[in-house]
Design brief:
The complex is a heterodimer of chains A (595) and B (177). Chain A contains 20 helices and 22 strands. By secondary structure, chain A is α/β, with parallel strands linked by helices. Chain A has 4 domains: 118 residues, Alpha-Beta Plaits, CATH 3.30.70.3270; 103 residues, Alpha-helical ferredoxin (Fumarate Reductase Iron-sulfur Protein, Chain B, domain 2, Orthogonal Bundle), CATH 1.10.1060; 162 residues, FAD/NAD(P)-binding domain; 144 residues, FAD/NAD(P)-binding domain, CATH 3.50.50.60. In chain A, the strands form 7 sheets. Chain A has a 5-stranded parallel sheet with strand order 8-7-6-9-22, with helices on both faces. In chain A, helix 12 runs parallel beside helix 20. By secondary structure, chain B is α+β, with helices and mostly antiparallel strands. Chain B has a single domain, classed as NADH:ubiquinone oxidoreductase Nqo5 subunit (Beta Polymerase, domain 2), CATH 3.30.460.80. In chain B, 30% of the residues lie in helices and 25% in strands. Chain B is elongated, with a radius of gyration of 23 Å. The chains are: A alpha/beta (595), B alpha+beta (177). At the A-B interface, strand 2 and helix 20 of A face helix 4 and helix 5 of B.
Chain lengths: 595, 177
């Protein structure tokens, strides 16, 4: 040890009373870098609680928890992410994957507390010192984890399309379907909105894994008519798709169609392979539409012997007789129906209850009856001249065309209404070479028809006149029909209410056409029910009242489909049929075996 | 840069030359030629600084991609040298004799990816993962989420809900429409 080593500690003392070289901390504020990944902030209004942040978190740091004041709705699970900062590694994957861009990271990063539980935070729901502070991290330009663009569906050109009734949507190839399926984050938000609560995320997953048999099994758990629903479903699931918040929703309907397009009818039976024992009980189903077919399928799977009675020559109900072939090819509908019949369901067609078969006999001979007769009657326009020849209901036209009785509509056609039946009638008339105009009393945005139906009708050359109220119809020269209509204005009815169309005085118009098609809604015909039975069933505004299992006030009679639910679409009917099958099972065997 | 590439081509088999920015170029070279190419760049082309050495797990191709990033202080050019090596027998010649700090990078790659650099100083010692008992964590087949679920206990009081079943309980409990 040298002398220097001994003395050097004391040299320091000579500076003890000097002004220090170091300065007082000048950095009172130490802002994070522009893209700093600091404490999380979540926009409670934007967030839909899809839980994708929690799923992607590699440290399992995020819980999805209910938050006071946030209601669960079809678009919003009502849950919000709660982050455990004891686990978070600040990788920001949760921000990258956020479907709504509600979750962000601020540039704040220093926080001291002695209570470890304080470090579990409900970002955005509780006030923190970084609440409302500037956002830091953003995913780099050109990088993205979510794919917002739907795989374009190959379609027949509209000019070609209107020349025949050829199916317009061509369907996805395997490569396209897997790519589209890959966009799904499997949040499951869509399940609640689907009337049949189909397990959408898992059948999409099966597509991604190219496991078609598994996908078919999942479809049949909740819907035995996927070739149908894969084409004509109103697909409200897509309206709540979390990817749809910032991009195109997943093409759920077309992915469903892809699955069923991959298998033929015989394969379906093999995949479903049902080993039930007949339980000796008999159920009658009246009406072979989607509700009746669905109930028959689910009852058969647990051993009931089911007979369907149908007035028409073929099963399918409104899907066959009310939807044109370019949307719903008959052989595809047959595939669904045949797969159901393959299970052992008996179908009796050409049966008119009350004429060829008595309702009382059916009621006596069967252990339960499921009523699914649909809406057969067209709403009347309630204007003078509506009974003139040349004024026909839309469902009549569609029914005729299905049966091959092509009517002569003439050159100029007006369709009154704004629903899917109006679009179907108008586009069918286009295919019969007519010039078609749709007349609707409200605005285009008020039309109950699917948006794509409206757009496709326009592409096919259908003209639209909106805010137009038909006033009366009379006969013109050369068998022309003169439709008198009046322009309307929309009168606000207060918050939450539909604005009402009111005639504008002095704005009356006439239109001379060959055919007027009315498609403003349908109503049921209950004449098949004998008086003493009809009087025991409760109705509310023409609809049959049932419990949640479809049971009417007459315990042996169940009902479903358009005569029960207000939505009146195929998937709601299928869901009704499924629930009624559970209800009938519960009623007849005191337990629910139907899954 | 073009001249350098020309000179390199005379002596080495290089491919995928990609000038990404004015001052940033990448090229690929075979494993066998990599160390001599890097030595040449350091000693004759004035790429005197090793910026970093890193790896990407190309699990689908059963390969690792090593990237040696070199810098020339005179021209302020960056040159990335990409080398593909077999993933099953992940081994690469060491460059610690060219830059002493390369040994540290190689030790890290051994721990994080399981890529061996025989002869590199202390290459088998733990780098930051003392007591690690699993496959190297930066390998793509390492399931981070599963590992954290198995290794770390959830804090007491934590509970989470799955949106799908939570919505069912709120909107359509069993049997309800």
């Amino acid at each position: 040890m040298s002398l220097k080593d001994i003395l050097s500690p004391f040299y320091v003392w000579k500076r003890a009373f000097e002004k220090p070289y170091t300065t007082a901390n000048p950095l009172t504020d130490r802002p994070g870098a522009p893209r700093y990944r600091g404490f999380h902030d979540n926009d409670m209004e934007k967030c839909i609680g899809c839980g994708t942040c929690a799923d992607i978190c590699q440290n399992a740091a995020i819980d999805m928890v209910p938050v006071e004041g946030i209601q669960t709705s079809k678009e919003d699970s009502g849950l919000r992410p709660k982050i455990d900062y004891g686990r978070c590694c600040w990788c920001a994957l949760c921000v990258d994957i956020c479907t709504t861009n509600s979750l962000n990271m601020t540039r704040e990063y220093t926080w001291v507390d002695t209570d470890p539980d304080k470090f579990r935070i409900l970002a955005g729901a509780q006030e923190n010192f970084w609440t409302g502070k500037e956002t830091g991290y953003k995913l780099g330009e050109g990088y993205k984890l979510l794919d917002h663009d739907r795989i374009t569906m190959p379609m027949v050109d509209p000019k070609e399309g209107i020349k025949s009734f050829i199916e317009l949507v061509k369907g996805y190839s395997k490569e396209q379907a897997i790519k589209e399926a890959d966009r799904c984050v499997q949040c499951g938000l869509c399940i609640a909105t689907c009337p049949a609560h189909m397990d959408i995320p898992n059948y999409i997953k099966a597509i991604r894994e190219d496991n078609i048999p598994e996908a078919v099994r999942i479809l049949y758990e909740t819907n035995p008519m996927s070739a149908t629903c894969g084409r004509i479903c109103t697909h409200r699931c897509e309206e709540v798709c979390s990817i749809g918040v910032n991009g195109d929703p997943i093409a759920i309907r077309w992915l469903k169609r892809y699955i069923i397009d991959q298998v033929d009818r015989k394969e379906i039976a093999k995949i479903l392979r049902n080993e039930f024992k007949p339980n000796g009980k008999k159920v009658a189903v009246i009406g072979a539409g989607p509700a009746g077919l669905s109930a028959a399928y689910y009852l058969t799977t647990v051993g009931y012997s089911v007979t369907i009675f149908e007035t028409n020559e073929k099963a399918g109900g409104m899907v066959r007789y009310g939807i044109p072939e370019y949307r719903m090819p008959y052989e595809q509908l047959d595939k669904d129906i045949d797969a159901i019949l393959d299970m052992g369901v008996e179908l009796k067609t050409g049966v008119e209850i009350g004429v060829t078969e008595s309702f009382d006999d059916i009621y006596k001979n069967y252990d339960a009856v499921f009523l699914s007769v649909g809406l057969q009657d067209s709403y009347s326009l309630s204007i003078t001249g509506e009974h003139l020849p040349g004024v026909i209901p839309g469902i009549q036209l569609l029914d005729d065309v299905t049966k091959g009785q092509i009517p002569d509509l003439g050159k100029k056609v007006i369709v009154i209404g704004g629903g899917n039946t109006a679009m179907d009638a108008a586009r069918t008339a286009r295919r019969l070479a007519a010039n078609v105009t749709i007349l609707y009393r409200r605005r285009e945005e008020d039309m109950p028809a699917d948006q794509e139906e409206i757009e496709e009708a326009k592409r096919e050359g259908v003209k639209f006149i909106t805010r137009a109220i038909p006033v009366h119809i009379d006969l013109g020269e050369n068998k022309k029909i003169i439709l008198h209509w009046n322009k309307a204005e929309m009168l606000d009815q207060g918050p939450g209410k539909r604005p009402k169309p009111v005639l504008i005085v002095g704005e009356a118009y006439t239109e001379a056409v060959d055919t007027v098609i009315s498609a403003i809604g349908q109503s049921p015909i209950y004449k098949l029910l004998p008086e003493e039975i009809g009087s025991q069933i409760k109705f509310k505004r023409e609809k049959v009242i049932t419990d949640k299992y479809g049971q009417t006030s007459l315990p042996k009679i169940f009902a479903g489909g358009d005569i029960v639910n207000d939505i009146a679409d195929a998937i709601s009917a299928i869901a009704d049929g499924h629930r009624a099958a559970q209800g009938i099972d519960l009623y007849l065997s005191k337990q629910v075996k139907v899954k | 840069m073009k001249e350098i590439i020309q000179r390199l081509k005379q002596q080495f088999t290089i491919s995928n030359v990609n000038q990404q920015r004015v001052d940033l170029t990448f090229l690929s070279v075979k494993k066998e030629q990599a160390v001599s190419l890097i030595s040449y760049l350091r000693d004759f082309e004035k790429f005197s600084h090793l910026v970093f050495l890193t790896a990407v797990d190309r699990v689908e191709d059963i390969q690792f991609q090593l990237t040696y990033m070199l810098h020339n202080y005179n021209t302020h050019q960056d040159l990335g040298i990409r080398v593909l090596i077999d993933r099953e027998k992940a081994e690469m010649a060491s460059i610690h004799h060219l830059w002493k700090q390369a040994g540290t990078y190689q030790r890290e790659l051994k721990e994080m990816f399981g890529i061996d650099f025989p002869g590199s100083p202390r290459v088998d010692e733990s780098f930051i993962l003392e007591g690690w008992d699993n496959i190297p964590p930066m390998r793509r087949d390492f399931d981070t989420k599963k590992y954290s679920e198995e290794t770390y206990f959830p804090r007491p009081g934590r509970e989470s809900h799955d949106p799908e079943s939570y919505m069912k309980s709120k909107l359509y409990p069993e049997g309800d429409a």
